[in-house]
Amino acid sequence: MTVPLPETADTLIRVMLATTLPYEDGALTYRIDKQELSLAEPGQLVSVPLGKRQVTGMVIGEAAGIAPEDKVITFKTAIPYDAALRLTPPMQKFLNWVAQWYMEPPGAVFKMAVSVPSAFTPEVLPTGYQIVASPEQASTPRRRNILTALSDMAMLPQSAASIHAMTGASASTIKAMVAEGLLKEAPMASLPSSPLSGLLNRQKPLTDEQILAADQLTAAVDAKAFKAFVLDGVTGSGKTEVYFEAVAAALRAGRQALILLPEIALSQAFEKRCLERFGFSPRLWHSGLTDARRRAVWRDAIKGEPMVVAGARSALFLPFSQLGVIVVDEEHDHSFRQQDGVRYHARDMAVVRAKLSGIPAVLSSATPSLETLVNAEQGKYEHIRLMNRFGEAGMPEITLVDLTKTPTERRRWLSPPLVDSIDNALQNQEQILLFLNRRGYAPMSLCLSCRERIVCPNCSAWLVTHKSAGQLRCHHCGHFSRFPEQCPSCDVEGMIMPCGPGVERLAEEVAFRFPDARQGIFSSDVITTSAKAEAFFDAVYKGEIDIIIGTQMIAKGHHFPGLTLVGVVDADLGLSGGDLRGGELSWQLLTQVAGRSGRAEKKGRVMMQTAMPEARVLQSLVKDDRAGFIRAEKEDREDANMPPYGRLAAVILSSRNDEKLTAFASQMAMQWPNYEGMTLLGPAPAPIRLLRGQHRVRFLIKAEREVNLQRAIAQWLNEVKIPSRVQCQLDIDPVSFF
User: Fold this and answer.
1) Which fold has domain 646-732?
2) Where are the beta strands (DSSP E) in 527-667?
3) Residue segments in the chain with a per-residue pLDDT below the cut of 50
4) Which residue of 73, 217, 223, 630 is surrounded by the most CB atoms within 10 Å?
5) For 729, phi and psi rounded to 5 degrees?
6) pLDDT, tens digit (0-9, with 9 covering 90-100), for 31-86
7) What 3-state class would DSSP assign to 574?
């Protein structure tokens, strides 16, 4: 038997906690003092006790529960933060939407929106000094002069440093004047946010094609209504300048703009372009920032300060209160998909947030994803095409180097035709990009005695040789070890041989073949900070690097006017294997890499080394047949009922006990209820069977688009009791199948 909750002098509220603990709706009941009842509106951020610690929570409404009879309930108290720290209704809906779609705990999603704990504490204002007496009351001419100078400052508190700069007064003199009652200590006003310079009208002449596109975007921003645009332009067509016009429209209206970028390394170059266009730098948001900078961006976002934020995918969860437009640059890039923690796709969720906020979203790319193109075909998105490069630049010429006819030398990776082209470009003082999407020195190492590959002790993956560091590294779990002198399998010494090329090994060949050329490697192992990326780009722009050797990081959005030759060392990477999107990803990556060439006056050239010259992806690039490639990809997906025509979800089980994991997965498969319109595939060993010491098994669920996939999975899992030592991860709409 139950009775109503006991009456209290205070109100009971439901608070969602920024934690992954599996409470219903991610919320618990707390009390709030009557005098703070006005702050108990949904969305208000509060501090609440949870066990022995304080956590951040969000009010979601008044409690309307019931309590067991004969049980005294003592509710702990929620303490509201500042009244300005409140999430807007659209932001609340967005967090709930993400949690429901990806089947994640609401508190885990909410935690991403409150990721800067220091932002919730009141700002500590620096101490200044303010006059409290007239100059005539000073006891000495020196003090009189100081008071006279400060009386012209509109009675605003001044720092000791500024007083010294104006009057020459020392710190001891200032303290003495405080003791004499001539000055008093007072908190100084907080510094204003970075001012907008007013360069919000169009600065550069745009082409007619660009103007038409920009006008469509700015009209949508001015209308303050949801609309999703696909800004689809060839590499070098000026897409950034076009969507900058939409950003300017948002700023003119006193609103905020969010631009999502796929790589931190892009932020420095993007910062310069923004400074050139608007006269101020964007506010950056990524994991490499100091806590002080993250705090400033977070607080200005929730306060509604007009600003431009350029950031990684997590910037989508900043608590903007006056958002005017969202741009996803390089929307096709898979780095917008979060693979750990809450598994969400920032591109898709950007459109959701824009819709819930009633603002436009712009998805920009030279190689839009198939999902985005199909949404445009179906009328869900508006498709804007930019078909021409800006200025005098033309599209590069693409040729294939058939390695079956012109092979490389033994233990060399550059074919004779590519070597000749590099030599010619160097003689003409032009820059070259050599692209190889493999980090390190070699992708694996092999014992020539027993033929065993050196594998990671924690993962079923080869260790990658990093010669510069003298290490073998796992790119999945981070394990590393010194390069072994003897084989760990057969104990024979001196027989470990690196196999295949990585960018480090390619750099060795470049140094051997072109000893006078200045080269630089651009990969995540070398370019580890934004500052290093900026220094690298500056060196390229100044002509201090002749040959760039890069991984996929170099393919994204970079503009190098002096670069005329791109050499793709292994164009076949990604063309084989069972990846649903393998062909599409290869086409996107190779198109983007090719687009780095010939972006200024000189004609660009792209040479792709391949042993599979008839591959559909490569032929489409050579023939400039984008439409044919996309048509064939869509037909393949539609025939197989694969995304974007069908839906997928993955269920990944992991455990340290392989035998028990396999037995449980088989039992779980037998409890699948055979829903109509859905097919269960598996269980099957994951491609990376062992990851970070955990054995892994995968299920893949195929469904018709109209099926409620989440509800079916929830019903299935509710019927299954998952052992405590087995972890279960859900991946809704997966893009990776490792």
Assistant:
1) Alpha-Beta Plaits (3.30.70)
2) 547-550, 563-568, 605-610, 646-655
3) 1-8, 66-70
4) 217
5) -115, 140
6) 998 888 778 899 999 999 998 999 999 999 988 754 444 455 688 999 999 999 99
7) coil
